[in-house]
Design goal:
single chain, mainly alpha, endoplasmic reticulum, PIG-V/Gpi18, transferase, glycosyltransferase, GPI-anchor biosynthesis
Length: 367
């Protein structure tokens, strides 16, 4: 695990160094970009003042901070109160710490399934994804992935209560955090069926805990909005974000192909298409049920949700099991042709660092 974590930290530090060089050349401050960009400003506002901010973008689009789940701003608030740092710096510390914890959990999952080499490769590939710059920003994906990875590991090792408790925390981090609860519930249902109902009380406890974080916040927002079951989803619709089985995404792609030439949108389309292929490979490899369900739900949300098309690769960062087929292939290549593997890793690093710097410094699209 130490080697895997070291490689991950080296990858992200080099990525941040590249971003810093580009941002300074452009006359901008790298820490300000990492700590106070796009959704980070909403989370820092919640951490400082609580919920209650609403921005009327136009008569049909209303941005409310109720769309943002509470765990990350609560952690930022705690770090700000307990330490001497500003809210922006505390947000970065929380994200960087969570990213390291997530890397350890990802290694644990990969090593348990396919050995230490694959676990290490899995962590390295996750740290070199095109959107891995988000892991170095004041965003929630590192927090969600940390709880998701260790919840999935707990499932693979039969620790039901831990799996459920960690899934509840994942569900309190982001809207798509319910993918972890779905993995726990699906695995529990399979075990009940396989053992014909003769399961321990720990399984029932874990299954009951798993959706608590996500459901608790959704119901709280519903109560606050006067519509217990539909209030949170109305908030999402006001942001222009809803699940429409991909119709919004298809419309956006058609418009992009016919009328636009932005670089980020085509890159997003390539990344999402690659995720679909990787999921097919994960199924072909007969991956364990928790990993299949977790990744499948995240992919379904990314494909089926409308609004903020360019953010879809970020939504897929917690779907690290999609990288398992690539990690296994990279280990096989490294053993047979080490030079080829080195070239592949170097190419991935170059793409990750350059594209990450472009996204944060120059692109004018939401991350």
């Amino acid at each position: 695990m130490g080697t895997a974590l070291g490689l991950f930290l080296a990858a992200r530090l080099l990525g941040v160094a590249a971003l810093a060089a580009v941002s300074w050349a452009a006359g901008r401050h790298p820490l300000a970009l990492l700590g106070r960009s796009w959704d980070s400003l909403w989370y820092l506002g919640i951490a400082a003042h609580g919920y209650g901010r609403t921005v009327h973008h136009n008569p049909t689009v209303v941005y409310s901070d109720l769309a943002f789940f509470p765990l990350y701003p609560a952690l930022v608030r705690a770090a700000t109160v307990l330490g001497p740092l500003s809210a922006g710096a505390s947000g970065l510390i929380v994200s960087w710490t969570a990213a390291a914890v997530a890397a350890c959990g990802i290694y644990a999952v990969g090593a348990r399934l396919h050995g230490r080499a694959v676990g290490t490769a899995l962590v390295l590939l996750w740290g070199l994804l095109p959107h891995s710059v988000v892991l170095s920003m004041a965003y929630t994906e590192p927090v969600l992935t940390a709880f998701a990875a260790w919840s999935l590991y707990a499932l693979l090792t039969g620790r039901w209560v831990w799996a459920g408790a960690l899934a509840a925390l994942a569900g309190a981090a982001r809207p798509n955090g319910f993918a972890v609860a779905a993995a726990v519930l699906a695995t529990a249902a399979y075990e009940v069926w396989r053992q014909r109902g003769k399961v321990t009380h720990r399984l029932w406890t874990g299954a009951a805990l798993a959706p608590a974080g996500w459901a608790g916040y959704v119901l709280w927002v519903g109560h606050r909005r006067g519509d217990l079951l539909g209030g949170y989803f109305e908030v999402q619709r006001e942001w222009g974000s809803r699940f429409d089985f991909g119709r919004g995404s298809v419309h956006f792609i058609r418009h992009m192909l016919l009328h636009e030439d932005r670089f980020v949108s085509p890159m997003t389309m390539v990344i999402v298409a690659a995720a679909v292929v990787l999921y097919a490979l994960l199924l072909a490899d007969r991956a364990p049920l928790p990993l299949v369900v977790h990744s499948g739900v995240l992919l379904l949300v990314a494909l089926g949700g409308s609004g903020f098309f360019e953010s879809k690769p970020r939504f897929l960062l917690p779907a690290f099991p999609l990288l398992l087929p690539l990690a296994r292939a990279l280990v096989r290549t490294a053993r047979a042709r080490p030079g080829h593997a080195t070239v592949v890793v170097a190419a991935l690093a170059g793409l990750s660092f350059a594209y990450g710097a472009y996204l944060v410094v120059f692109a004018h699209t939401p991350l």
